[in-house]
Amino acid sequence: MKKKKLLIRFAGYYKPHKTLFIIDMICAFTISVFNLVYPYITKEIINNYVPNKLVTMLLGAAGFLLGFYVIKAGLNYFLHCWGHIVGVRIQSDMRRELFTHLQKLPFSYFDDNKTGVIMSRMTNDLFQVSELAHHGPEDVFLSLITLIGAFIMLAIINVYLTLIVFVFIPFFALVIVLVRNHMKKVYADARAAQAEVNADIESAISGMRVSRAYTASEHELTKFDVGNDRFVESRNRQFKLLGKFHATMTFFMDFLYFAVLLGGGLFFYFNIIDVGEFTAFVLYISTLITPIRTLVTIYDQIQEGATGFKRFCDIMDVPPEKEDENAVTPDNIVGEIVFDNVTFGYKNGDDENDAKVISDFSLTIPAGKTVALVGPSGGGKTTLCHLIPRFYEINSGVITLDGYDIRTLRRSFLRKNIGIVQQDVFLFNGTIRENIAYGDFDAADEQIIEAAKRANIHEYIMTLPDGYDTNVGERGVKLSGGQKQRVAIARAFLKNPKILILDEATSALDNATEMLIQSALENLSDGRTTLVVAHRLSTIKNADEIIVITGSGVEERGTHDELIAHGGTYKELYEYQFKIL
């Protein structure tokens, strides 16, 4: 039933292109019929037109065949041109659907799956699906029509000789059944190995600077060789099995010729068939073997395409982020955030045995205030930042925004009102203008420039030869860390959110750059509810409230001066950073 559902699901992708697909099938059917006419005309020429010297009929039959061949050439053009176009369009539809679905998947999916593996499914797998979409139905349909037609024509010539030949067909079917399941597993292993190689390559190229800096090229090569050897090994198993399959099928087809020549020769010897019928029979066997050979040839392609489609469906069947069907979009928010007994673990929200990053956590962040989170690593500070925009779902408890449970708010509304600037800034491979415009794609150039000015990056941009049209490179590699941070801040200015999350936004910068960016961040935070995660305590001295978070929850809270006077964990951290003994 599962295979049937997959087949029905695959067939559904032909619906938008059904007109071209139907024409393609009509062309395939017509070509099959033409292939069946040629041996019959040959029989008539040998048995009738030539012995009886019917030149007019001979020339007519020759002209008839020539016309068929011209039409057949046009049909083959359509079949190979527009048939492939149908396959490419289906591939495009699937890739668009997959990309759209990926945009809706929970962040936990990307935590558990490598980028290179996902890319392999979007490129290599869908290419194989495209080839299957074109060649699969077309070749199978053409082959079946030719097989049935050839069988009928052979039976008309001599039914007994036909039965002698076709008695071997069940053995052919048995071989396919025996090999099929084993090949399916081998092809799946090969596809998975290829995806892992792609993932290793993607990771190695992305981290090229790190591996060069640590002279780790040999290590990367060794790691790559492990995956590459696994890919070669899986391909070896695949091709050995495919070689056995093709060798068996080739022997079967050769044996058909042998059976026809032997049986047909004996039938001709005993005058059961004449020379024309014998010739036609041999030609029809050639016609019969052609679709068999086609089926054998595309079997590898069918397996590749079916495996690719199964892997495509594996992603499409991952549930997207859940949206409350009654989710609301308030007219306005002021930005009060409340954590009420929140518990969260990254593994599985329903499994009590999972290690909890946050347990029974409660905290109120007043609207328009700047609240800083400090404390040792592993206390859950960054996790809290991820929970507010619902990048992950909490296990228990409630997070509210202006009294609304955030699970009852539309994600698009929630995230539209939250701006995030992180330590590891991600810039897309495009221009500076495009990267700033992520804050508001409808913004005019004047607004983009104003956002850049407020982020203290405009003057630098104007020194570049192409200004705002300068390409930043992959992940912003052409910009320094401070420049990337300021582009990210400009992006947040343009978004103009009610809530701002600054997650270690300056920790990777030098002191001079930090001071420059800190000024922009303070400007950005003005009048917004701001949550700051920082290890550099000098950057949060002016926060309205500083909260010290440890593994057991909130340990201390207050202003900088209050916490220093209190003499607890915050004072120890502060004195350690500034080496006050």
Main attributes of the structure:
single chain, four-stranded antiparallel β-sheet, 63% helix, six-stranded mixed β-sheet, 19 helices, elongated, alpha/beta, 581 residues
Strand order in the largest sheet:
6-7-8-3-9-10
Structural class: alpha/beta
Nearest-integer average pLDDT = 80
Query: What is the helix fraction of residues, given as a range?
Result: 55-70%
Number of strands: 10
Strand content: 5-15%
The rough form would be described as elongated
* Cα radius of gyration in angstroms: 35 Å
The string of secondary-structure elements, in order, is: HHHHHHHHHHEEEHEEHEHHHHEHEEEHH
Q: How many H/I helical runs?
A: 19
Determine the N-to-C terminus distance.
73 Å
Structure description:
The protein is α/β, with parallel strands linked by helices. It has 19 helices and 10 strands. A 6-stranded mixed sheet has the order 6-7-8-3-9-10. It has a 4-stranded antiparallel sheet with strand order 2-1-4-5, covered by helices on one side. Strand 7 (499-503), helix 17 and strand 8 (529-533) form a beta-alpha-beta unit. Helix 5 (115-157) runs antiparallel to helix 10. The chain is elongated and about 120 Å long. The mean pLDDT is 80.
